[in-house]
Design brief:
It is built from 13 helices and 6 strands. It is an alpha+beta fold. The chain is globular, with a radius of gyration of 23 Å.
């Protein structure tokens, strides 16, 4: 019997966290939908098949009403794992470094703006009669809309926009082969590395996209407040790649080839961090009024379900990616902030010296 788990949606103060699961036997429409797309999972994976451990070939099936042509893939063995492992380490280092430089530039810009106001306190009165910048009506409305967004929503918006674009790209029949090659993680694919990142922005089904974006929006407020937008972005992107690595390692270890896609691994990293940062926040179960548990207990329950999915080899979800993302979020709370982000000085100091070398800024 298929069980769809809705992710936890958590609230601290104004954010409401929800966790729900329901059986599809009570929803005939959902059953029909699952029969149509039953060979994908949320972080979706294609139909499983078994081959010897040292050799796997990706499944030729990813069925829709018209099956797209899937790019040919090579054979897979454990020695190929060094590529995704190195890519994960390199991408994680690059993400943290870029986020540290981004934070430095933001602080520098704010400091420069404040310094200009202190040095020229009457600049406003000198320029009061100058005409204001004119914007087109649409641009003006977009500017006002962006100003109304919170810091967390300004991070969520481009992530959601990128996911929607990739979702629309899946609907173009002539792009199917490219989408399978670069926007699905597959241990047997010739393209191993970049799909680990691109697949975290990839959703084939609207329900999958909506669920992940809803949960991400709900958790982003508390997480951004705790980490800051720069560190949050680095953790989110790296968490998605780590989740993909966990999926690939599990696929090779179990001798099971599959396509996997979705942002849920990265979202689980955010959930893992949030539940550790706010462990006493209450998590409510949707459609079950007056019942809630604390966030830490809810996280343990989710991780236990994903662990059971790995042990019993449940096929609908990519439990390895979910569990890998959640563990990364927990790790970031206990160690990442202090030992990784806390040592960003080794990146920021050379960048600062480069920016101010010779007394000139570039």
């Amino acid at each position: 019997m298929s069980i769809i788990q809705n992710f936890i949606v958590c609230q601290k103060c104004s954010n409401h966290w929800v966790m729900n699961s329901f059986k599809t036997t009570h929803f005939p429409i959902v059953n029909d939908f699952l029969r149509l797309v039953g060979k994908r999972s949320f972080r979706t994976s294609s139909r499983h098949f078994r081959l010897p451990r040292k050799r796997m070939k990706s499944s030729p099936e990813f069925v829709e009403t018209q099956s797209p042509v899937i790019p040919s893939t090579g054979e897979v063995g454990t020695p190929r794992l060094w590529k995704p492992v190195l890519f994960t380490a390199a991408f994680g280092s690059a993400s943290v470094s870029a986020a540290a430089i981004w934070q430095y530039e933001n602080i520098r810009a704010r400091h420069k703006s404040f310094q200009e106001k202190v040095e020229s306190p009457f600049q406003y009165f000198n320029n009061w009669n100058q005409p204001a910048e004119k914007r087109m009506p649409l641009r003006e409305e977009m500017h006002k809309f962006w100003k109304r967004l919170t810091e967390a929503e300004k991070i969520f918006a481009p992530i959601c926009f990128a996911n929607v674009l990739v979702y629309l790209a899946w609907k173009v029949p002539s792009w199917q082969s490219t989408m399978f090659k670069y926007f699905c993680t597959n241990a047997a694919s010739k393209a191993l590395c970049w799909p680990m990142l691109l697949s975290t922005f990839s959703h084939y089904m609207l329900l999958h996209l909506g669920a992940n974006m809803y949960v991400l929006h709900s958790f982003s407020h508390g997480t951004v407040a705790s980490l800051g937008k720069e560190q949050f972005t680095a953790m989110y992107l790296t968490g998605g790649v780590v989740a993909s690595l966990a999926s690939i390692i599990t696929s090779v270890g179990m001798g099971v080839g599959r396509h996997s896609l979705g942002a849920s691994g990265a979202v689980m990293a955010v959930i893992g961090y949030s539940c550790m940062a706010y462990p006493t926040s209450q998590v409510s179960v949707i459609f079950v009024p007056n019942y809630s548990v604390n966030a830490e207990t809810a996280l343990k329950a989710l991780m236990a379900v994903d662990l059971a999915g790995l042990i019993f080899r449940w096929r609908f979800f990519d439990h390895a990616a979910h569990l890998g993302g959640a563990l990364f979020g927990v790790m970031w709370y206990f160690y990442g902030r202090k030992y990784i982000w806390g040592n960003r000085e080794y990146v920021v100091r050379p960048w600062h010296e480069l920016r101010t070398s010779g007394g000139k800024n570039f």
